Model the fold of this input.
Amino acid sequence: MKNFINLSDINKKELRKIIDHAKIYKKKILTSKSYYPLKGKVLIMIFEKPSTRTRISFELAMKQLGGELLILNPKDSHYGGGGESIHDTAKVLSQYGDIVMMRANKHENFLKFSKNLDIPIINGLTDLSHPCQIMSDIMTFEELKGPISNKKIAWLGDGNNVAFSLIEASVQFNFELAIASPKKFKPDKKIIAWAKNKKAKILITKDPEEAVNLADCIMTDKWISMGDKVNKKKKKKILKPYQVNKKIMKLAKKDAIFMHCLPASRGEEVTNDVMDGKQSVVWLGALNRIHVQKSIIQWCLK
Ligand code: CP
Ligand code: NVA
Done:
């Protein structure tokens, strides 16, 4: 059984196949409307926290490939309300669907759920990682700039769940990664150690200007993630020098692109002129999630 949990769990060649197939799915929707390989298949989506893009892109992916969906929002089920154990919910859901996509508060609960499930599961974001997002970012980057291998990606700001998956991707897709974060909000130590052990081309710095120097792409994310239990005011103050603005964009390559997984807090981690500027590819990034989800679902089911 194939689960899609973290990018470091999956072989490089398999990840490359998922991206290449996503590109084919994107072309197919324009040329052929009658391709329904997921007819009769049911995806169960479980949300412990809100989602716009992940929810709708998975929904569209299933619908465009002829499949069906069941959606459980927080408090919709006994599991969400705390009235049934993870084990028992997983056993029952395994009989109702063919595959699960879960957005979980705690990664350890996600793993516990996955271990009790008899059907594949996809990580639709946890407090630790967000692999589906980064797969879509790779597709978007390559659509615009060619193979990502040996290109330079810069990440500014919070060393959060999206940054975690980006670090894993830098190893699996062989790109240079420069992360600028303040000491207090650096990415997970274990994943940095894993990446360094795999000879990743990775720079962790406090200096945003050093990180973005000649980058092909600058990425960032909200300073306060869902469920982040921090002093928000204090965290935002510490992260202020890591804002992506026009001045920072100028230090990257002239044709560099700007990516953000969204939702964004305009005026905080990114200014309006960058979000809405010519280098921003945020809308394409959101669109491509549909096609990457199709590819991930198919990979898990095959
Ligand atoms: N980027 C992303 O996962 O967005 P949602 O939280 O809207 O799903
Ligand atoms: N880091 C953000 C990503 C949202 C898609 C969060 O976890 O809230």
Observations:
- Residues 131-281 form a domain with the Rossmann fold fold (CATH 3.40.50.1370).
- The first helix runs from residue 12 to 31.
